[in-house]
Design goal:
The chain is α/β, with parallel strands linked by helices and 246 residues long. Helix content is 31%, strand content 20%. The two termini are 34 Å apart. The N terminus and C terminus are likely disordered.
C-alpha cells in the first residue's frame, strides 16, 4: 500500500498540470469560489470573459449559474489541455501581456481574473484593456503589504505551468489595485470578508504572512451598494460567511 501511494505521487508530479490539481490548489479554488458566492453579486446569466484560466477548473462556478463563458489562457499547453478535457467549452488563447489582443476579444458583462494578475509584468496595461471589454471585473490577486501604491515586480519560473510566461510577475499593494480599478472602471472595491484560506489574511498589521498574500477586489463602471464591499483597503477583514458558519 505504501509503495502504491508513493508511485501515485510520482505519477502526479510527472504530470505537467499537477500544479493545478494538487490538493493545496484545489483547496484554494474552493475557498475562492465559496467566498465569491458569499458576496451576493448578480452573476447569473451573464456573458463572462475568464482570463488566465489555467486548465479550466474555475469555469463551472459560472456555468452552474447559467452564464456563457469564453475561457481564455495564455499558455498553449494549458489551452490544449482544456480543449482535451472540455471539448464543449468555448476556449481560446489570450496573452494578457498583449493589450491589443484583449481589446479585440469582444464585449462581455464580467471579466473574471482570479489568480492571474500577479503573473503579469504589465498589469496596468492589462487592466486598462480589460476595462474596455467588460463593465465589471472580479479580481483576486497576490498583494504586498503597505499603504502606498507600489507595483513590486518579481521574478517567476517560466517552466512552471501556473506562473508567468515572461518570467516576470508582480505583487502590487492593495492600494495600487484599488487605484487602477478606479482609474479604468470608475469604482474599485475590496471585500469586507476574506476567503477561508491561510493565503488570505484577516489582519494586515500582523505577520508573518503566507508566502502568497491575497485579497479580493471588484471594479465596476457603476457604483455598487453592498455590505460586502468597501472602497478602501481595510486593515482588518473578517472571515467569509461560509467560514463563520462552521
Amino acid at each position: 500500500m505504501k509503495l502504491s501511494r508513493i508511485r501515485n505521487r510520482v505519477v502526479v508530479r510527472l504530470n505537467p498540470f499537477h500544479v493545478f490539481l494538487a490538493p493545496e490548489a484545489l483547496a484554494i479554488n474552493a475557498a475562492r469560489q465559496e467566498h465569491l458566492a458569499s458576496l451576493d453579486l448578480p452573476l447569473s446569466g451573464k456573458r463572462v470573459l475568464e482570463v488566465g484560466a489555467g486548465i479550466g477548473l474555475h469555469t463551472p462556478f459560472f456555468l452552474d449559474r447559467g452564464c456563457s463563458v469564453l475561457v481564455t489562457e495564455g499558455r498553449t499547453d494549458n489551452v490544449a489541455e482544456m480543449r482535451r478535457r472540455y471539448p464543449d467549452r468555448e476556449i481560446c488563447q489570450l496573452d494578457l501581456e498583449q493589450a491589443e489582443d484583449i481589446r479585440a476579444i469582444g464585449q462581455f458583462d464580467i471579466a473574471y481574473c482570479y489568480g492571474t494578475l500577479y503573473h503579469l509584468s504589465t498589469p496596468t496595461e492589462a487592466l486598462q484593456a480589460l476595462s474596455s471589454v467588460a463593465p465589471i471585473i472580479l479580481l483576486e490577486t497576490c498583494c504586498s503589504r503597505g499603504d502606498g501604491e507600489e507595483l513590486n515586480l518579481v521574478g517567476e519560473q517560466i517552466g512552471v505551468m501556473n506562473q508567468s510566461q515572461s518570467g516576470s510577475g508582480c505583487r502590487p499593494t492593495r492600494q495600487w489595485v484599488l487605484t487602477r480599478l478606479r482609474d479604468y472602471w470608475g469604482h474599485g472595491y475590496v471585500s469586507v470578508t476574506q476567503p477561508d484560506h491561510p493565503d488570505f489574511p484577516l489582519d494586515w498589521s500582523l505577520g508573518p504572512f503566507a508566502s502568497n498574500t491575497r485579497a479580493v477586489f471588484v471594479g465596476s463602471r457603476l457604483p455598487i451598494q453592498s455590505e460586502h464591499l468597501v472602497e478602501r483597503a481595510l486593515q482588518v477583514q473578517v472571515p467569509s460567511r461560509s467560514s463563520q458558519s462552521l
